[in-house]
UniProtKB/TrEMBL annotation:
Record protein name field: Pyrroline-5-carboxylate reductase
Membership in a protein family: Belongs to the pyrroline-5-carboxylate reductase family.
Top enzyme class: oxidoreductase
Gene3D superfamilies recorded: NAD(P)-binding Rossmann-like Domain, ProC C-terminal domain-like
Organism: Metabacillus bambusae
Name of the coding gene: proC
Catalytic activity of the protein: L-proline + NADP(+) = (S)-1-pyrroline-5-carboxylate + NADPH + 2 H(+); L-proline + NAD(+) = (S)-1-pyrroline-5-carboxylate + NADH + 2 H(+)
Amino acid sequence: MLHNKTIAFLGAGSMAEAMISGLVKSGKIAAEQIIVTNRSNQERLSALESNYGIKGVKRENLQFDQIDIFILAMKPKDVDKALIDIKSHIKPNQLILSVLAGITTSYLEQNLHKGQQVVRVMPNTSSTIGESATAISPGHETADENVNLTKILLECIGAVYKIEEKDMDIFTGLAGSGPAYFYYLMEHMEQQGVLAGLNIETTRQIIAQTIVGAAKMIQRQDKTPTVLRENVTSPNGTTAAGLDALDENGGGIAISKAVEHAAKRSKEISKQLQESLLVGSLK
């Protein structure tokens, strides 16, 4: 389904690069079918061309009628200008995927064509290695076939979950910010490994494999995290001692609060962004 599709990234930032890297590494879509464009940074386009074998094109040279899927990947504050630029060049049946944090499908629909095919998507940084947790939320008039196409495309960079747009903030708290929680956990585990005498490279690999293995057990079994935790926790054993220390130091509460606060901040940023865009449009 992807072999005859041409994809254009409008924006060349870090998330665009993460997705490009994952798509190219998947081998499910040819690099020459991927185009990336920005307004003026030719050096950035050249670097992406060189690194991934894709095509870098200046915005004014993009042949819009030859593109099947546009991925909006510019800075969210620049979305108004971008939508004005592309509206006269695109058709309602061309699929628009937006990775713009805080920008709703309704906003995109209102500023493009009636019946515009729009899907809001949110990958995380693990898309670079094809292991992203990606949420998708289609617009009100987006056809099922385009939702399926979006899912197939994004499965090239990891697992895809269709959710309601109102749940994008909690998804951000869980998956968008989630990798940082694991890195934070690893940092502190690593410190203890090194203090105990292990070299840092071995310590890091041990912890990483432990986390990967535990995650795969969740994915491959029907048991809940609670049951799996209880199964490896013997009374008065080493795991119980570690978990007691976590409880005594607010570990569980801290993790819950991290997710809660990230989701809350996502909602705040979205509100602030929508308000600033509205003010800008009234000037």
